[in-house]
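[job 0412] stage=complex_fold ligand=threonylcarbamoyladenylate status=START
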Amino acid sequence: MKTLIFEPSNENLIKCSHALKASEIVAMPTETVYGLAANCFDEIAIEKVFKSKNRPTFDPLIVHVNTNEINHSSKFPNLDYLFSLNLISINQINDSLKQTYETLMKTFWPGPLTIIFPKSILVPDLVTSGLQTVAIRAPKHEVAQNLIKLANSPLCAPSANRFGRISPTKASDVYEELNGSIPYIIDGGECEIGLESTVVSVSEQSIHILRPGAITSEILHNATGLQIIERTNNSPTLNAPGMLETHYAPRKPLLLFNENQLNKEMIIKSIEQLKKIDPKNKITKCSLLLNNDSSKNKWLSILPLSILDIFYLNSNENTETAAKQFFETLRKADHSNSDCIIAEQFSIDLGIGHAIRDRLQKASTKL
Ligand code: TXA
Ligand code: MG
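[job 0412] stage=complex_fold status=DONE, emitting structure tokens
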């Protein structure tokens, strides 16, 4: 299959909406990362999404809705709206939950927050991997909003990368990942945020963050007054997917070190372990992924490998910019001729820095 990249003209968006109505799949820009969109009620199209990404069907998809139109008619996105789209089951939602849901929707939509709702039986099990819940978000990107509107249906859209790989933040990244497996990519430029949406589930007393993103626990607490609980690796919701331990990963091994682990013996030991896991990889040359150049000399003095190139995650000391460039930087390190990536954990655990740390942790090789 030939993969075409389209400018987001009205004519091209109409062409893509026709493709979506004919059970095709289309890569679209969002403000977080590029998504691979399909009509969320069309099982033939949804199967194509899983197949082209090589994604296991136990990992459920996020459904994307258009809220521009209802904003214009001065109604905020509310539960009735999602019910009218045949996405959620409303009778399982009591008044206190309703209030929390609607505060979240009103405050953060359109934007990078995905909310888990009780699902309508009309949403195919394939979308939700058989779960009784459905994840929904309203993307802010104009192109995504317009495409959903033209398609006349909510669109499910996972990130437009092969399963487990680095998420795409440019049309050319999607092309690199899925060239030959999808017909169309809409080029909406570079994604503004660069990391996937925050995913939350809601209970009466608290909000659980299942995946950290630009909407942080502090922001959620300020908006709702509720207790915010971060999912940890050993919490029982681990089988809530995307939460898989290795994700967002480069093709070559990535060894991640915290600053306090910066000692030669530790690094040598990790490299030896890596050689055992992958005996064909001789591991002589590495790419170095650092926060900025202040720790460079320290790393150069202790690394027992030749350093092919050095990439910086936070060269201009702005966490939002670091997030925006994160996946691209990881992709560049992956393109290098080195045998592995040695990475320093992102040092700022505040704001979206928390999500950068999460993605680096998940991109790292588990020894
Ligand atoms: O920013 C984003 O969310 C991007 C753009 C394209 O919108 N999409 C995205 O989709 O990151 P994906 O498929 O790469 O990640 C979606 C994650 C799943 O891995 C899963 O963890 C979670 O959302 N998810 C989906 N449905 C769920 C459900 N019913 N319960 C719990 N988690 C769910
Ligand atoms: Mg993804």
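Residues 319-335 form the longest helix (17 residues).
[job 0412] exit 0
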